[in-house]
Amino acid sequence: MMQETFAFIDGSRTFSCCVETMRGPRAEAWWWFRVSTDENQRYAPFRVEPDDTVDGVQRRVVAYYDNLLARRAEPMRGHWPRGRRPGVAPAPTATT
Fold first, then answer.
1. Residue 10, domain extent
2. Number of domains in the chain
3. If I label 54, which of 8, 18, 73, 77 is the partner at 20 to 30 A Cα–Cα?
4. Are 54 and 65 in contact (CB under 8 A)?
């Protein structure tokens, strides 16, 4: 049976993982983790699966966190587009 709490080291980071069951009518179990380089955050990226292994969870957690760091490093995109949309001609003005 898969253990529900474990820690591992990836490079200079220590990941602490545990399973928690959400409250409510759909009480599903999720993998939660913390990272030593980001101690103020906790993440629950995926549900517990019956065939989970420590190695598989480790790979998924590292891939999720590396992808998260890559997205955070991207430049922010503005919420509201400025100017005209590409390919849209300005409306003609009436002349009298």
1. 5-70
2. 1
3. 73
4. no
User: Where do we find the tokens 């922010």?
Assistant: 76
Question: 3-state DSSP call for residue 68?
Answer: helix
DSSP SS3 for 43: strand
Structure tokens at 23: 């409250």
What pLDDT does residue 81 have? Answer: 62
Residues 10-48 have pLDDT tens digits of 999 999 999 999 887 878 999 999 999 987 899 999 999
Helix (H) or strand (E) holding 69: helix 54-73
Q: Could you tell me the sign of the dihedral formed by the alpha carbons of 71, 72, 77, 80, in that order?
A: positive
Cα(34)–Cα(41) distance, rounded to whole angstroms?
7
Rounded to 5 degrees, φ, ψ at 76 are: -70, 140
* In a domain? residue 81: no
